[in-house]
Amino acid sequence: MEAKKIMLSGIQPSGDLHLGNYLGAIKGWVDRTEEYDNYYFMADLHTLTVRQDPEAFRKRALEQLALYIACGLDPEKNTLFYQSHVPAHAQLGWVLDCYTMFGELSRMTQFKDKSKKNADNINAGLFTYPALMAADILLYQADYVPVGEDQRQHVELTRDVANRFNGIFGETFKVPEAFVPKEGARIYGLSTPDSKMSKSIPEGCIFLMDDETTINKKVKKAVTDADTEKWVRYDPINKPGVSNMMNIIAALTGKSFEQIENDFEGMGYGKFKPAVAEVIIESLRPIREEATKLIVEEDYLRSVYRAGAEKASILAEKTLKDVYDKVGLTYK
Ligand code: TYM
Questions:
Q1: Which of 12, 185, 200, 304 has the greatest number of C-beta atoms within 10 Å?
Q2: Which residue lies with its CA nearest to atom 9 of ligand 1?
Q3: Residue 149 to residue 178: CA distance in whole angstroms
Q4: What is the pLDDT of residue 184?
Q5: pLDDT the model gives residue 182
Q6: Sheet containing strand 78-82, strands side by side
Q7: How high is the pLDDT of residue 55?
Q8: In angstroms, what is the span from residue 203 Cα to ligand 1's centroid?
Q9: How far apart, in whole angstroms, are the C-alpha atoms of residue 167 and residue 169?
Q10: If you measure from the C-alpha of residue 150 to the centroid of ligand 1, how many angstroms do you get, rounded to a whole number?
Q11: What is the per-residue pLDDT across 74-86, written as a single tens digit (0 to 9) for each?
């Protein structure tokens, strides 16, 4: 039997998980559990690039693990771990820092955005962030990296770094591909349909742990469009607000835009919004309920991440040894 291909991805525990994370990344991971050999982690080292409250950070990382499982990632079928528990990430990260160019890192959109947002803390980690992300991916010889559209540029850089390294030292790293979903790749904020849904604009961001009342409130206040036509039609240019909500429904239910347009034919936004809220509430309810149960099972969660790190280390150390041998470092 042919070995399964490797899927790998991570999310920073920098804020509570939201619908953008779920539709852009996690849902795709869950849907493909059986098909691939899966590695998913809490990108806690990356989170240090922005100042954190240590206690809240630690708690959020564990909650993120509970939510991974609650979203449907079975720990028996997915290797779930903390990035910081596998030291090879930081070790390969340093080596790849030395094979990633200043010019390449300067062009990264996320670096430019975050530098603007954290003008008083543009630290070296924020700059070299993509080299660590390349290490995350290349350590596991990942075939596919399922991410939202905003991370595509980092995966492209990872490919460039892998090709560069392979070019110098011979075949060392698998050159990975980004796996970006058709719907859900870029979910916009409900209050800002021109910028992506993110925790930094909480009023337009649906968090996975939001309750029914909160979701209703946020959807009710969602920006709809200023054009004169007041019915539901998919048109991201002229109707970005409505199209974003249609995209959310499509990604959650698997319906096509045409089907959604038919469902709401002749109805105004007044009927559309409660229906959108309903779909979100019903989709997230089982996740929230399961996560609430799991969050208090700290011993169980610890056993999951420990087993995950142990399993992840086997693959990671194999690649690290190969890299150390090739560049002339002495593997322990
Ligand atoms: P992060 O933590 O910002 O986001 C996690 C995942 O959620 C997706 N995402 C979205 N997708 C659609 N619409 C949105 N509004 C939205 N917001 C977030 C992101 O595309 C991402 O897939 N650098 C990464 C974390 C990382 C990583 C890795 C990912 C570290 N190492 C190795 C893959 C492989 C990041 O900051 O994602």
A1: 304
A2: 21
A3: 9
A4: 81
A5: 86
A6: 78-82, 37-42, 6-11, 144-146, 177-179
A7: 98
A8: 20
A9: 6
A10: 7
A11: 999 999 999 999 9
**In the numeric block, which tokens belong to residue 110?**
């996320």
Check if 252 has its Cβ closer than 6 Å to any atom of ligand 1: no
Please check whether residue 38 is in contact with residue 78, taking contact to mean a CB–CB distance below 8 angstroms.
yes
pLDDT along the chain (332 residues), means of 10: 93 97 96 96 97 97 98 98 98 98 97 92 97 98 96 98 98 97 90 94 97 97 81 91 95 95 88 95 98 98 98 98 98 94
How remote is the CA of residue 258 from the centroid of ligand 1, in Å? 29
Q: Is 136 in the pocket of ligand 1 (CB under 6 A)?
A: yes
- Can you spell out the DSSP letters for 123-142? -HHHHHHHHHHHHHHHTTT-
What's the CA angle centered on 182, arms 141 and 285, to 5 degrees?
Answer: 95
Determine whether the shortest distance from the Cβ of 137 to ligand 1 is under 6 A.
Answer: yes
Average pLDDT, the chain: 96
User: Does residue 145 have its Cβ closer than 6 Å to ligand 1?
Assistant: yes
Report the alpha-carbon distance of residue 163 to residue 270 in Å, rounded.
53
Active site residues: 114, 196, 199
pLDDT digits (tens, 9 = 90+) for 42-74: 999 999 999 999 999 999 999 999 999 999 999
> What is the pairing mode between strands 37-42 and 78-82?
parallel
- Who's near 4: CB < 8 A, 6+ residues apart? 35, 36, 37
Q: What is d(CA 17, CA 149) in angstroms, rounded to the nearest whole number?
A: 17
Q: What angle do CA 274, 276, 281 make, to 5 degrees?
A: 90
What element of type H or E holds 42? strand 37-42
User: For residue 149, which amino acid is it?
Assistant: E
Q: Which of 245, 270, 246 is nearest to 258 (CA)?
A: 246
